[in-house]
Design brief:
Elements: H1 4-9, E1 17-22, E2 28-36, H2 40-43, E3 45-50, E4 53-58, E5 75-78, E6 81-85, H3 89-98, H4 103-107, E7 122-130, E8 133-144, E9 147-159, E10 165-170, E11 187-190, H5 195-205, E12 211-220, E13 226-232
Antiparallel strand pairs: 1-2, 1-10, 2-12, 3-4, 5-6, 6-7, 7-8, 8-9, 10-11, 12-13
């Protein structure tokens, strides 16, 4: 297990990232989603509440150039499930679950983003909390070594996750041109502190120049009560 904040500090541009885990006291499910940006268009965003989830929104609508891959709902809920992703596949998963599909079946209809030459991976998380039971899943859809003719789909499932632990997945392995995709399994990371401390630590660890927005949610595993935090660089 690696320290989450140290892992985030080690990369100037991990892109967009998801952390799912469990608090050290074992009482809460933990969700975090962050976005970063290098271009003016990518940085011109904020998170806003949208029902029981969130959506991205242009901070300055006059500067928005192409909303196709940067305006979406990263977090939505359906029943006892919370869906978190880095794109409009959030809606694909929610619609699939509503139609009694598995999330595997829903995501099998999607692939990486069409942003040549990066072909940014689509990363997704699914949190399930019901009657004290907790499990989560992560997925990444990416091109085969940058070849847009071949899509690789990876799925990871974690049942009864351990207290104080979580998993991190993000879009890019490092900086580059084109940007290299994340490789390997989601990283086992530490989950520390209450929600305010956790949120502050993650936000502080992200690269100051490139970070854009952060969302966290803690779900009480006994009551189902949720608490959410949004941090936007543009405010």
């Amino acid at each position: 297990m690696i320290k989450l904040t140290e892992e985030l500090k080690a990369s100037r541009y991990p892109g967009r990232g998801i952390v799912l885990g469990r608090t050290a006291d074992g009482l809460h499910a933990v969700i975090a989603y962050f976005i970063m940006g290098r271009s003016e268009n990518s940085r011109n965003r904020i998170f806003v509440e949208d029902g029981t989830g969130i959506r991205t929104q242009a901070f300055d609508p006059a500067k928005m150039k192409d909303p196709s891959l940067i305006i979406y709902a990263p977090v939505r809920t359906i029943g006892n499930y919370t869906v978190v992703t880095n794109g409009d596949q959030t809606d694909t998963i929610v619609s699939g679950l509503d139609a009694q599909m598995t999330w595997y079946e829903a995501l099998s209809t999607r692939e990486f983003e069409p942003d040549d030459p990066n072909f940014t991976p689509r990363i997704s998380g699914l949190v399930h909390v019901t009657e004290g039971h907790y499990d989560y899943q992560l997925s990444i859809l990416k091109s085969h070594g940058g070849d847009p003719s071949s899509c690789e789909r990876f799925f990871y499932s974690y049942s009864n996750p351990k207290a104080g632990e979580g998993h991190l997945i993000h879009t890019y392995a490092a900086e580059g041109d084109p940007l290299p995709s994340f490789t390997g399994e989601p990283k086992l990371v530490s989950v520390e502190g209450d929600q305010d401390a956790f949120t502050e630590a993650v936000w502080t660890a992200l690269n100051e120049e490139n970070k854009v927005s952060l969302f966290t949610r803690f779900i009480n595993l006994e009551t189902g009560e949720t608490g959410s935090r949004i941090v936007n660089k543009n405010s």
